[in-house]
Amino acid sequence: MSEPTGKYSITMPRDIAEAAKARSGPSGLSSYVAAAVARQVERDNLNELIQVAEAEHGPITDEEIQALRDQLHQADRHQANGGSDAA
Q1: Helices (H), 1-87
Q2: Among residues 24, 62, 70, 72, which is most buried (max CB within 10 A)?
């Protein structure tokens, strides 16, 4: 079952609206804009979580970020190799 919808009027720069309309494809501009807004809401929610975590535990260091990126890349390589550790 799909979510209930509402009709809203928004104002945006014409060039952005035209670019979005050109990229919206068969789903239409409303779906394209709704997906973009949903992604922004997710980002805002994640930023709020980060702020709460950093207030409690301190800021994340660049080294911690790089270590996590390295772990993700290693996991991607592992998955690409069918679960084996061979490179």
Answers
A1: 14-23, 29-57, 62-80
A2: 24
- For residues 47 and 57, is the Cβ–Cβ distance under 8 A? no
Question: How far apart, in whole angstroms, are the C-alpha atoms of residue 73 and residue 86?
Answer: 14
The single-letter code of the amino acid at 31 is: S
Distance (Å, whole) CA 75 – CA 80:
9
pLDDT of residue 2: 75
Q: How many residues does the chain have?
A: 87
Tens of pLDDT, residue by residue over 72-82, are 999 999 999 98
For 36, 40, 64, the CA distances from 71, given in Å and listed in that order, are 29, 26, 11
CA distances from 39 to 7, 32, 43, 62 (A): 19, 11, 6, 25
Q: Say how far apart CA 27 and CA 32 lie, in whole Å.
A: 7
CA 44 to CA 48: how far, in whole Å? 6
